[in-house]
Amino acid sequence: MELITGATGYVGGRLLERLLAENRPVRALARDPSRLAPRAGVEVLGGDIISGRGMREALEGCATAYYLVHSMEAPTGPDDGGFSDRDRRAAESFADAARAAGVERVVYLGGIAPTDAEPSAHIASRIEVEQILLDAAPAATALRASVLIGSRSSSFRMLVRLVERLRVLPMPAWRRNRTQPIAERDAVEFLARTPGIEAAAGRSLDIAGPDVLSYGEMIERIAESMGVARLPIGLGFSLIPPASAVVSALTDQPLDLVRPLMQSLEHELLPRDALEAPEMYGIRALPFDRAVERALAEWERTEELAAR
Predict the structure, then answer these.
(1) What backbone torsions phi and psi does residue 233 show, to the nearest 5 degrees?
(2) Are 88 and 76 within 8 A, CB to CB?
(3) Distance CA 194, CA 133 (A)
(4) pLDDT digits (tens, 9 = 90+) for 163-177
(5) What is the percent of the chain where pLDDT is above 90?
(6) Which of 21, 208, 231, 260 could make an S-S bridge to 122, C-beta 3.0–4.6 Å?
(7) Distance (Å, rounded) from C-alpha 84 to C-alpha 223?
């Protein structure tokens, strides 16, 4: 039995479909079980990771547990330390329960860290969670990814909405910073294969697509894939706080999500070793342009894109 926490989320939902396609029995944990429709091969349980409610039952009999929980909400009160505090408490609660249940493999998806600077609060929180989980289970695997290219990826949707709604694209100073985005399909495939990859046990691995791109190049190539002409205007500054508010309004994304994502753009996010994980897993990742085309096609099956 394999447990997916965060099964109602974007990546968790895609991983659920991937495991079912292989006829792997799945247990899904959700704070609100009603959000998951009954499915053959899926056992749905209610629970809360921070409080520990339902964790013992969820982990019982599971050889693998996927930890796909990440909080980006604003503080809810004076006793709430924000997303990093919630993430730490959730990871510690999960780690204690997994250790007590004797779970063999914990699999986590986090974020690539900058190699030339201190990580943003968003990335630092993910690294902290990674270490908590690696310490809890000797055979745990942490996968780190940069921008996921998929129709429901928050980062990708933010970029697409900017291209869609702005004829002139202000390009802040971070436009020159590079990263190595990965197709959603490939990130989910890495997750699904991890329990069977012994060499990945006890490791933190970076996963990425084959293309190294600056954020400016990513935006320009998304515009090209959408078939629209946009005028890029290079700026010599970033101004993350006011820019975050503008981007939030333009993209219909919550400010508490946009601000930490944009803070992560201030530095290059490149994998420590771009070839190690693909060679270990036998995965040939999609090129950026192909990943964008797939994501846009899926987007348009359920939602209109005005710029296409």
Answers:
(1) -120, 110
(2) no
(3) 15
(4) 887 777 766 667 788
(5) 55
(6) 260
(7) 34
